[in-house]
Amino acid sequence: MRILLIEDDEEVAKLVRNGMADANHAVTHAADGKTGMETAMQQRFDVMIFDRQLPGGIDGADLLRDLRGASIRTPALILSGLGGLCAWMQGLESGGDDYLEKPFNFTDLLGRVEALHHRHAGLIRGALG
User: Which residue has the higher pLDDT, 29 or 119?
Assistant: First the structure.
C-alpha cells in the first residue's frame, strides 16, 4: 500500500514510516501542508494520514477540504493532538474518514489504515462490476 503522511513532528513521522515499512507499506512523507498538498495532487496514494496542526499556513483539515474539492477521494485518517468530540467532528466534516488522537498505539493506527484501504478498494471494485 502507498501512504501519504503529512506530519510535522519528525519523531511521529519516523515512528509511522518505520512501522509501515515493517508492515510492507511505502510511505511518502511531507512535513508541511503546502508540500502535502502538492504531493497529494501529483501522485496517487492508497491512504493519506494527516496531522491537523501543520506549519506552512494550511491546517490539515483545510488541506483535506481542499483535496476533496479537487476530487481527490483517497481515504484519509486524521492523526492529531487535538482531542475531544469537537475536534473529531471537525476532522470528519472536512472529509476525513477516521480520526485518531495522539498519543496513539501504532497497532491501532496500522489496523485503521489497513481497514480504510480495504473498504475503499472494495467500493471501487464494487463500482466497476
Answer: 29
Residues in the chain: 129
Among 61, 49, 42, 64, CA closest to 1: 49
pTM exceeds 0.85, yes or no: yes
Distance CA 38, CA 6 (A): 11
- What is the CATH topology of the domain spanning 2-128? Rossmann fold (3.40.50)
Residue 55 CA to residue 45 CA, distance in Å, equals 22
71-111 pLDDT, tens digit per residue, is 999 999 999 876 777 776 777 778 899 999 999 999 999 99
Instruction: Say which DSSP state 97 is in.
Output: S
